[in-house]
Amino acid sequence: MASRLEDLLQGWDGEEIILRHDLPTNAWIVVAIHSTRLGPAGGGTRMKSYPSLEAAVEDAQRLAEGMTYKFAVSDLPRGGGKAVLAVPSGLRDADRASLLRRYGALIAQLGGLYQTGPDVGTTADDMDVIAETGAPYVFGRTPAHGGSGDSGPATAVGVLAGMRVACERLFGAGALAGRRVVVQGAGSVGLPLLRLLVEENADVTFADPTPRARDQAHAELGVPYLDPETAYDQECDVFAPCALGAVLNERTIPRLRCRAVVGSANNQLATEDDAIRLQERGILYAPDYVVNCGGAMALLGRETLGWSHPEADARIAATVRATLTQVFDIAAAEGVTTVAAARRVAEARLERGAASA
Ligand code: NAD
Ligand code: PPY
Fold this sequence. Notes:
The protein is an alpha/beta fold and 357 residues long. It is 47% helix and 15% strand. Helix 7 links the parallel strand 8 and strand 9.
């Protein structure tokens, strides 16, 4: 009988999985290349502890698939990939740095097949370390090391643009002033998103279980915070998941009291059925990869295409607006979920891009 790991590897529709055990730290390195139809695979490096190797492989696979669609809707010449460093809990700083250097050497060995950047659990400083051995295939280094730095603010620009489009659909006007928005997670995307929403005079609250993140956002912006457990139950116009994946599921969707979901988290839906659950509840869902492409666009645009910071922000807002409008139009005209509509838009661009490559 095939093991669960074999099932995951054999059942995946992506191109390649590179799996390496790092003996000195007992970590697993998983590089998932989902598609190179539009170009070399790009996607960040996630570092965290997983309950099992299988869970790490599955996460890398799902995240890499999301990157394929994200680049397709961003009209950037990259395919989808993602790496997971599944580390034992309590990894010491020196061990962490040496793992990152060995991981960089693996990226260099792949010779450009996979190009990385930050994701949950890694920062611009970590990209500097990975680039010591992994250059030139590392995006998002610190500005001091020649990179474009934290991609969170650029991602927030795209999420804000997505919220405007959703509000236009629901209320006939995209202005966010007075709109009640609940932001789940005040990290590298959530905090700059909160800043933008406060500038727009939105009526914002947020939740974050990490005291440092919560206190920073509250002290800087004066916005009220919620118990993270109650975030789903808040009556609001827009719920913005900016923390974890799989937060929209059969347990949370019945609790939601929002009109729309627009957030940055990758893989927000636990299963495909959750798109139908949202539709049945009349909640307008902005598919994650359509609205969270800002970080990827800024990293590649600023580091390989010569975009200035303001140019990147303008392109991100315009791209999210155009794609999300198209997705909502298809969903409304054909009665399909926004997830199915987004998939169709992305697949069409993949076909077109592959044909012209
Ligand atoms: P981050 O780690 O900087 O921030 C996440 C925050 O969420 C942390 O402050 C954490 O304490 C908080 N959090 C954890 N569990 C929570 C819960 N149950 N309720 C509320 N808050 C909780 O991560 P990030 O870079 O801001 O990314 C957030 C999400 O957006 C991730 O899913 C990431 O994959 C996705 N994303 C990020 C970018 C980017 O540019 N950073 C781009 C695309 C997608
Ligand atoms: C994401 O948007 O989830 C990313 O992983 C961003 C990214 C894109 C390209 C290289 C590295 C990171």
